[in-house]
Amino acid sequence: MNISQNLRPAIWGVVIGAAAITTVGFSSLGWTLGSTADQMASDRAETAVVGVLTPICVEKFQHQANAPAKLAELNKVSSWDRESMIEKGGWSTVPGSDTPNSAVARACAERLGRLL
To answer: Which of 9, 22, 51, 97 has its CA 20 to 30 A from that of 110?
Structure first.
């Protein structure tokens, strides 16, 4: 293939320009891959769900029959074990689910810890 001498600088300009705009686009202009956008959307959705369900968990905890005693018991448990206590108590189990939501349990334990 015989390329004209005048065409070679133009081809190199296109190649270098494409590499430059790609680098600038992903680093400064906020371009993302589809998989990254999916992960970001999933993270935001989970954060929103936890934000909505945490007050429900706290409310369920506070409206049990022996809430003051359970709150005192929660106070005695180390901060690492509070999440497990919330899960075992069933307060972080979402209606329609059989298993507790660990992210909700973590946020609920944190919020109940602030009440202590």
So the answer is: 97
